[in-house]
Amino acid sequence: MAGLTALADSFHLTPHEALSGVFGSISLAAWIFLLVPQLVENYKQGSAEGISLAFLTVWFIGDITNLVGAVWAGLVPTVIALAVYFCFADLLLIAQCVYYNVSNARRARKASELSAQSGSSEEEPLLSRRGSENIGLPGSRRRSSAASRRRTLSGGRRDSLSKILEEESKNRVWLRNAISVVLICCAGAAGWVIAWKSGVWRPAPVGDDKSPTGTPMGAEILGYASAVCYLGARIPQIIKNQRERSCDGLSLLFFLLSLLGNATYGAGILFHSQERDYFLTNLPWLIGSLGTMVEDAVIFLQFHMYGEKTLASAVVE
Asked: Got a GO cellular component term for this one (predicted)?
């Protein structure tokens, strides 16, 4: 904090103006890279079954209303450009999910048809069909009992090993994601310093902020509509995770960046000004940010409860 105060003094900024700029820049960096982890996760899995298309669709509607509202209100070009970027990024992720869902469904249907055509062979030798039953073979029951005990013991060892490996995997995932979040914060802060030194960024005078009476009613309604969409978007994903008791296929970093972006976005607004008119103007976006942070916390709890099942199942098999 002392270093930030010294930096602000050297550039004739108040600490609140500097913090507002830094938080806003970190939020921007988080939003820019937000969808990349989920795109990469879907690509690695070759599937998009983990993420809810209803979640993405409602989120996309929220970004559309946000874009239209920003254009209607005549916001600065950078805000409009970001809104356009978000819409295209949403479309890219939705297109990837639809592609994987359709292609995997087609592949599963073909495999099912081939399995139905082949069926079970009725020409299988009688001895091979009954061999698993161990009927009439001397010592077969003893061997089966011994093998069963060995499987029980080895199964216990595999269960213990799977738990250890699963815990280590979780720790590595959280550490890797924490490092990514720190790097995003550093990139955002560095971007703000560069923008300030180059003259691209200047603190906006508080007195020049638009009051609610100066904002077109339609743009204000769209702002609240986008906040409602952002609040409702995660509900289908939370329900899906709870119903399947799994977060497999979801990128934890995706939701961490969402939390970071919303938290720093709200902090940037509040550090800029606490005046009533300014606060009311930005209230829809503050409501959307705060609400989605609560929902992201629920998803983090689901990650903790259900974890990744793929590693444990791979070890057991």
From this structure: lytic vacuole membrane
